[in-house]
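pinned: reference chain
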Amino acid sequence: MKTSYCLLGLSLLVSSTALAQVPRLESLQALQWSQRVILVWPSSAEESIVSEFEQERVYLLDRDIVWFVMTSPQPVTNYSGELSEDFAQNMAEQYPATKAKVWLIGKDGGVKQARQVLNFDALYDQIDAMPMRQMEMQSR
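pinned: its structure tokens
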């Protein structure tokens, strides 16, 4: 019986430690210096946009990209952790759909591109020209 409680306690500790490693996102600050971000405000056909991201999976992974399709009530994303309840509102305030539908945010947290249409080739060209990406490509 004592062994069962120890195993249960150990498994809970391991589970909570694993969950604690992926932060709950309230903003993009937790991703700074490790991930690039593509944020999309879809006007319609959000399923096709998500499908496009899934088709680009290998290229997105190679470029350390986390993406968010800002759907209601919760965004669709490849981020492996949880999003806070305030995440969508925070994104709407910082990266408004009225200015652009597609936002590319660099690893440094700066806006690199703001577009009206999702164009992966244009995004990849922009990313691949970045000095940090050039260093990544040379080291691989």
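why pinned: The two ends are 51 Å apart (CA to CA). The longest strand covers residues 36-40.
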